[in-house]
Design a protein that fits this description.
The complex is a heterodimer of chains A (112) and B (119).
Chain A (H helix, E strand, L loop, with lengths): L3 E4 L2 E5 L4 E7 L6 E7 L6 E7 L4 E4 L2 E6 L4 E6 L8 E8 L6 E3 L3 E6 L1
Parallel strand pairs in A: 2-11
Antiparallel strand pairs in A: 1-3, 3-8, 4-5, 4-9, 6-7, 7-8, 9-10, 9-11
Chain B lengths: L4 E3 L2 E4 L5 E6 L6 E7 L5 E8 L2 E4 L8 E4 L6 E5 L8 E8 L13 E2 L3 E5 L1
Parallel strand pairs in B: 2-11
Antiparallel strand pairs in B: 1-3, 3-8, 4-5, 4-9, 5-6, 7-8, 9-10, 9-11
The chains are: A mainly beta (112), B mainly beta (119).
Chain lengths: 112, 119
């Protein structure tokens, strides 16, 4: 089955710095790559996604890049703020087309 | 728009009891997915349902676990004879339709989860 690896598992940055989280996947059939933010005690919330026909997508301070050849994709958060502190999960679509395979998450801490 | 509603938010059961978790999808969504999250782990797919149909239950344990999405009412994830290893957060997600092939998977909206503790 699909295996999604996510690094780092924890990340601490100072407010205003950038944060980068990287994921790799194994199934070449995967064509949808969402990123979710999960705050303590809450459900995952979609923050950005990218499909395989696009190499990069940006939404204000958040950007995602995708390298299908290398099977990796990354989340970039610029000008981080304390409220960005949360656990971030990457995911890749399975060959079923609807189930998502998630990474184990990155706990991001942004210190003032 | 109330979003995906899950209840109960917290459930405590003793070993051997039954747990029932409910999920009402977003208004206009007819597809429901259940995921399980163990401590410090990512979410694992369990089952995908449409109204009155189980489409894919490949991620669900073969015994003790069942799911339904009746014509009327919420989707139910049922765990019989719970064991300590069932302790986890169970998340429900919904989508408006099924996306496959070149268009890719659908955007999922998750609920806040139901946290099951088995004593």
């Amino acid at each position: 089955g699909e295996n999604v690896e996510q690094h780092p598992s924890t990340l601490s940055v100072q407010e205003g710095d950038s944060a980068v989280i990287k994921c790799t996947y194994s199934d070449s059939a995967s064509n949808y790559f969402p990123w979710y933010k999960q705050e303590l005690g809450k459900g995952p919330q979609l923050i950005i996604d990218i499909r395989s026909n696009v190499g990069e997508k940006k939404d204000q301070r958040i950007a995602v890049t995708l390298n299908k050849t290398a099977k990796h994709f990354s989340l970039h958060i610029t000008e981080t703020q304390p409220e960005d502190s949360a656990v971030y999960f990457c995911a890749a679509s399975s060959n079923s087309g609807y189930a998502l395979n998630f990474g184990k998450g990155t706990s991001l801490l942004v210190t003032p | 728009n109330a979003g995906v509603m899950q209840n109960p938010r917290h459930l405590v059961r003793r070993r051997g009891q039954e747990a029932r978790l409910r999920c009402s999808p977003m208004k206009g969504h007819s597809h429901v997915y259940w995921y399980r999250q163990l401590p410090e782990e990512g979410l694992k797919f369990m089952v995908y349902l449409q109204k009155e149909n189980i489409i894919d239950e490949s991620g669900m344990p073969k015994e003790r676990f069942s799911a339904e999405f009746p014509k009327e009412g919420p989707s139910i994830l049922r765990i019989q004879q719970v064991v300590r290893g069932d302790s986890a957060a169970y998340f429900c997600a919904s989508s408006p339709n099924q996306g496959r092939g070149a268009s890719g998977a659908n955007v999922l909206t998750f609920g806040a989860g139901s946290r099951l503790t088995v004593l």
